[in-house]
Specification:
The chain has 369 residues and is an alpha+beta fold. Helices cover 57% and strands 8% of the residues. It contains 19 helices and seven strands. Helix 4 (39-47) packs across helix 5, helix 11 packs across helix 13 and helix 18 crosses helix 19.
């Protein structure tokens, strides 16, 4: 048995075979758990296993306690933020791993995550920014400022030089244009469900929408690490809870929104690692089986240069005016962004900065990823 199969088995069953662990070496297993970004969950399972040596259990117990302590501090900040947004009347959805940590994992600290993903309506950006920066003293990171390229803003709360909480505030579900409008904020809000384990005002997507997001996110934003167990285990937990009616809703919605091939690939890969119970009729649904032949999003399942991806993003926009605007925003971000990122405190001409940016990024645009 290789390390990845052993790790997947521990996540799936919750049991640890000490003989296999010894054969694989703990160092290799620990490294794999870190690479797959599931160390808190794996550490919790090893620490609770009576079959594992006391020394090893103690080591992983420390890992689990460290993850729990960091998560607790972030949770306090998140609750304050959600309360402040609620008081200002800003509808907010907790999404992705931040959502699933409180709804599908036994404890939130078991779902590894660096930041909290929140989704708001596009017209609520300024009000939410005011809450974060003026009221709660978060610092805003640097992002592209274009209407089409900018889909989210990062915020960081620090205390005594230490990061307490990081927030990714989204007003569109995904950055790539072909995925951007697969689900709208308002339709997700209409079918959203409460997250009582987090806060009275906290809400997240329903399971069907959450599964679509999980399948889509690993490809749209993390196709260079799409095999990470963190993403696949999220899909496993969501799919394992769907009812027959929810599966029907999921397959219909994925097909209508042009992301069936991406969803099918995510489900199939998850089932290979975690034996996820996917109904046979879903796996053989012709809408899924044939989707890759005509869906634009299916191109994200292949390795290709970034320039091809960006051209697909441009073609996904219905109007030539918007296509030209997106190309312009990529090539010529705002002057303030260029000064802030490429030459803070410098008086170099903007033309020089734009040329430098294009030259520096050219290699990355033609390199497959």
């Amino acid at each position: 048995m290789d390390v990845d199969h052993f790790l997947a088995g521990v996540l799936r069953t919750g049991t640890v075979d000490p003989a296999t662990l010894t054969l694989l070496t703990d160092e290799a297993v620990h490294r794999a758990a870190c690479e797959h970004d599931v160390l808190p969950l794996f550490a919790d399972r090893v620490a609770a296993s009576a079959a594992v040596s006391p020394d090893l259990r103690a080591r992983y117990r420390i890992e689990a306690q460290m993850a729990a302590a960091a998560d607790l501090a972030a949770e306090r900040a998140l609750r304050s933020l959600l309360a402040a947004l609620f008081q200002r009347g800003i509808d907010t959805l907790v999404i992705k791993g931040s959502h699933l940590a409180y709804t599908h994992y036994a404890r939130p600290d078991l779902r590894a995550r660096v930041d909290t993903d929140l989704l708001i309506a596009r017209d609520a950006r300024e009000a939410a920014d005011d809450v974060l920066t003026r009221e709660l003293r978060y610092e805003a990171g640097s992002k592209l400022s274009g209407e089409l390229t900018a889909t989210q803003q990062a915020y960081v709360m620090t205390s005594q030089g230490r990061v307490v909480h990081m927030v990714d505030l989204h007003w569109r579900l995904a950055s790539p244009q072909v995925f951007a409008h697969a689900l709208s904020f308002h339709e997700m809000l209409a079918e959203s469900v409460p997250i009582p384990a987090l806060a009275a005002s906290a809400r997240g997507p329903c399971d069907v929408h959450a599964l679509i997001i999980a399948c889509m996110h690993r490809v749209a934003h993390h196709h260079d690490e799409a095999d990470r167990f963190k993403w696949l285990y999220d899909i496993h937990l969501l799919a394992s809870r769907l009812t027959d009616a929810e599966w029907e809703h999921f397959t219909t919605l994925a097909t209508e929104r042009g992301i069936a091939a991406v969803c099918r690939e995510g489900l199939e890969r998850t089932a290979r690692w975690f034996e996820t119970p996917i109904p046979a009729w879903v796996r053989h649904d012709r809408r899924f089986v044939d989707a890759g032949q005509h869906e634009e999003t299916a191109a994200f399942l292949r390795v290709r240069p970034r320039v091809r991806e960006e051209l697909d993003h441009i073609r996904a926009l219905p109007r030539w005016r918007d296509r030209a605007r997106l190309a312009r925003e990529h090539l010529w971000p705002s002057a303030s962004y260029m000064r802030r990122i490429y030459a803070p405190g410098s008086h170099l001409p903007l033309t020089v900065l734009y040329v430098w940016r294009i030259v520096r990024g050219a290699a990355a645009w033609v390199r497959p990823r």
